[in-house]
Amino acid sequence: MKRVMILIMISVVYLIPSDSPAYCQDLPAFKNPDLPIDQRVNDLVSRMTLKEKVSQMLYNAPAIKRLDIPEYVWWNECLHGVARAGDATVFPQAIALGATWDRMLMHRVATAISDEGRAKHHAFVKEGQRGIYQGLTFWSPNINLFRDPRWGRGMETYGEDPYLMGEMAVQFVKGLQGDHPKYLKSVATVKHFAVHSGPEPLRHSLNTIVNQRDLRQSYLPHFRKSIIKGNAWSVMCAYNRFDGYSCCGSDPLLQDILREKWGFEGYVVSDCGAINNIYQTHHIAKNSIEASALAVKGGTDLNCGRNWENKDEWLNEYENLVPAYTQNLITEAPINTAVRRLFTARFKLGMFDPPEQVPYTQIPYSVVNSEKHRQTAEEAARKCMVLLKNADQTLPLSKNLRSLTVIGPNARDIEVMYGNYNGFSRHAITPLEGIRRKVPHTRIAYAPGCRHAKNMPLFDTIPGSVLYTSREKGTQGLTGEYFDNNELSGKPVFTRIDSIIDFNWFNDTPDERLPDDNFSVRWTGVLVPETSGEYHIGANGKNGYRLYLNDELVADFYTLHQAHYTSQKVKLKEGKAYKIRLEFYDTINTAKISLVWDNLSRDLHTEALEKARTAEAIVMLMGLSPRLEGEEMDVSVEGFNGGDRVTLTLPGVQRELLRDIHALGKPVILVLMNGSPLALPWADKHIPAILEAWYPGEASGTAIADVLFGDYNPAGRLPLTFYESADQLPPFENYTMSGRTYRYFMGSPIYPFGHGLSYTRFEYDNLNCPDEFTAGEPVTISVDVKNTGMRDGEEVVQLYLSDANASVPVPIRSLEGFQRIFLKAGESKSVTFILKPRQIPLIDRDNNRIVEPGVFSLSIGGKQPGFSGNADAGTTDVISDSFRVEGNIYKLGW
Questions:
Q1: From the candidates 629, 698, 795, 852, which is the catalytic residue?
Q2: Are 72 and 346 in contact (CB under 8 A)?
Q3: Which runs of consecutive H residues, i.e. helices, occur in 469-601?
Q4: Which residue of 334, 390, 505, 699 is surrounded by the most CB atoms within 10 Å?
Q5: Is 698 a catalytic residue?
Q6: Quick one: DSSP state of residue 424?
Q7: pLDDT tens readout for residues 138-172
Q8: Quick one: 607 exposed, middle or buried, by C-beta within 10 A (0-12, 13-18, 19+)?
Q9: Residue 172, φ and ψ in degrees, nearest 5
Q10: Of residues 271, 301, 586, 852, which has the active-site annotation?
Q11: 69 beta partners
Q12: Catalytic annotation present for 629
């Protein structure tokens, strides 16, 4: 009877209007926005049953209606723009942002991303949508060390150096999470913790082993900085084992280091499927029940563990926490702890407070891909450009060229511009389009020249000239039947003729009569090729599609997580009509579909040579593609394996084309678009100008053209080493740092970490460094930088330290400071650095972090010391000095 009365009283409380004076004091504590968050969380968790608590530890947490808790999907992505949720500003890929070496730009980029994320979230909620990629908890940034250039996911990181990585990560985290004293703007999740960077095919079973020195000097400093300095509120644990422990069930990583030593207060989420790995591939537990209990007790609060590809076969492992409890494998205490951490994040996001009290709810949807954000994306794209070589001042090109030929598979490939984990912009400009806009009076010819690699199709949208509604070829185009559900069921709402199938409706629908995220289209007709030959025919889309040719399924795709081409090789005859049917299903967020093909009989190589012969200059857009390098991919292409790379060279078809174009004797400018380093020994020797553009986002074409034609003076720097060959590297699966990255590599790279040229010159003078100081004290260092050239430009001032008398193995040198500055022609500035004790330590034989007395070499310049670079452009040699650390050994914390 008492319980019934309590329920009646609670029900009455819910009926009290919110403007009543008694409203707050009569609410359950967790609903009272005036109470401290920890008190509200504790009250809420105390009201939940064990089963309800466990349900909130799933990445797609269901609603608890009796407590007025809405459903929430924790999974969202924003690596370089809000991803997979319709239109968004697409900034340069993470590795390109690392190449800017610009902290404040990074903060502005992340702030723009979180503005768009907030606006999208509230728009979705207003429409009753609470699905995947619609929340405020972002699984970004990826700050794994890009220790080996063969790793396919290295493009998602900021490079190979822990100091650069940490500085950029802190700004990204702060920009995402905001600076409000009470509320988080969004949640940043640093991943993947820890010692995780390939090989991709081994990531679910690999046991990475490194010594304490490598762990603490290379693999963890940037994670520590993002937690302590950036205050990241979430961490994603990795698939692999580290030192025998599953990273998602590791007391040494998640309890000892993360929480006790670093004081982390947020929540840990598993990488998707990592709990499954604990028993299926790592064989640490006998089954899913044991693995789930182990992970929660180890410190993983939230599980992403569903097989989203087939809803009939999966079970989220954490649903097994209830039987784990009944079998005494886990108590309720660690479950309570996990749920409290998760709801603390949701309360800090303001999800249970009146919207008018949460400042970020007021961000208007108009910020999404706004002019201001597009300008920031354009600035970031320009700043990430790295001029690798510029012999004889080949660049910038004259705007008075009469003719120019643009060649390469990356010249007009929008998905190459985006990289991976990306959104889609309504304002994307390809390199070819950017060049055409820049020099509208120049005669510009274009030829793809080759495919990215042998056996990799180079798709074009199938033109309307070969599509007909019937075999009689009466009407060009395909008949589209549009349904108001995603199952092609019932009668179509309307039917129309679409001349070509190349649509991106973003968050919208083709017609106001169709519901958002719940429509489907069936296109039917015939394909009548104009040329006989072998073709790859397929589709490219988001959500789901099926393509049939003569009623045979040739392409089938259904996923929520990334855009994909699927295709099949077929033989087609000129003039023959082939029955074609394309079915498209929209279920969530981006609605995108294209009907594509590649004529394998076409001689791209010869076409390019013919068009190049008449040009005054040739720009070649070459490199890689996110369809070759990336996360755990099924790629059957020579030189690539599972998303990783086997060699570092350009694919063979590209090397052959580059040599033949160069043999024409024309000025050739090579523009590289890629997410990982390329070995370019021949190109470095023969091609006069080489520009590294990465995957530079929606403004790719504008930024590349600005640099090529001198409207922007490049100043980006390499965030990683460009080696001569993979033969210079240790085995990929070996995680020992010896022989890797500029800090430990003893060989000669083609282009070193920190390298980048300019259209002007900079000189350094008046290096002011104390001769000696006491261990444990900070030290101030300054230098004067002057632009001695004829152009305004930016310089990235880099400070490196080397420990000349270390008692244990230490890096050859380490970056310990950088500033990106702008100088007008003839202008000088003084740049100051403050070295803190933690920047000059070592890990001694007893694994203590200390500063020991000795001599340290110091160098400051626009690059690393010891690399001459290009004599025609760029910075002068660095300026160097040394100092002595005196006194007793100074001990630092972990």
A1: 629
A2: yes
A3: none
A4: 699
A5: no
A6: B
A7: 999 999 999 999 999 999 999 999 999 999 999 99
A8: middle
A9: -65, -45
A10: 271
A11: 64
A12: yes
